[in-house]
Amino acid sequence: MAYDEGLAQRIREVVVDYPTIAEKKMFGGIAFMLHDYMFCGVIDDRLMARVGPDNYADALTRPHVEKMDFTGREMKGYVYVDATGIEEDDSLQQWVTRCADFVQTLPPKKPKQKK
Questions:
Q1: pLDDT over 80 (residue 113)
Q2: Number of domains the chain contains
Q3: 2, 95, 86: which is closest to 40 by C-alpha?
Q4: How far, in Å, CA of 22 to CA of 11, rounded?
Q5: Domain for residue 108, yes or no?
Q6: In terms of residue numbers, what domain contains 18?
Q7: pLDDT score, position 86
Q8: pLDDT surpassing 90 at residue 71
Q9: What is the CATH number of the domain that holds 40?
């Protein structure tokens, strides 16, 4: 399934000054990684936003936001923001910043052991 490359580029422009940003193709879309944690991404034309469990209920009260249930199972701490909710650059920046701020509260990931 294709993802909105224009939205992905807009996210790249928001995160240009963040350290250690990486991109990974996953879920049929693209995910943006900060300190090896997925913090946002694009699936179809929607923003996938990792808001964290403490901010999850609040995020769901916002316009144009719905639960992320990619595999039919709700992913607590993650929401989808539809295209209408991120049309404006300020709105997209607020969501991306919210996601990055949450991920930066997480402990450093342990290096993966080689097999």
A1: no
A2: 1
A3: 95
A4: 12
A5: no
A6: 5-103
A7: 97
A8: no
A9: 3.30.1460.30
